[in-house]
Amino acid sequence: MTVTETSATALHDDAVRTLEGWRTADAGQDRLRRDYLAHLAGHPDGLFRACLPAHITASALVVDPASGRVLLTLHPKVGIWLQMGGHCEPGDPDLAAAALREATEESGIPDLTLLTADGAPTPVMLDRHQVRCTGKDRPENTHLDVQYVALARPGAEALISEESLDLRWFGYDSLPELTDDSVRALVARARELTR
Is Hydrolase set as a keyword in this record (predicted)? Predict the structure, then answer.
């Protein structure tokens, strides 16, 4: 087994452990959790872009709780304001690290930390959505997104990357019109958990 295969297996095993250990009182979220686990059981490569028609992705909503604001990116492919996130990479040691890497790269904020439960980073929500991550002229595929909350220090300043059309802080109660219900639900959950 190559180093890449070993790290991909470790990432897959971590995703299974993370989802098996994650509990929610919400029946819809629990159904998604079980669907994600079934996906991983059937696809050893289920965390990578090449796994079609669906693959696990990792994202993180960057939150500055002291200021009551969230950082959103205007996604160039989707055209709406979203949390930071994207595809897992073979070098990611675990799912939480993939989410933190994406949040750091896309926000330009170097010292983010993920929200934890019992001392370990934990997802806060799951979201399944259709995208065309393989290209505009290709069929849609499904992202099985595992969502975390990344905490920014008070007053943190973001730095836009080439992965965004725009990057802005928004108050909890003043989210942009060009966002979707999944982002609004994630912001509400993050607000509740960081009070």
Answer: yes
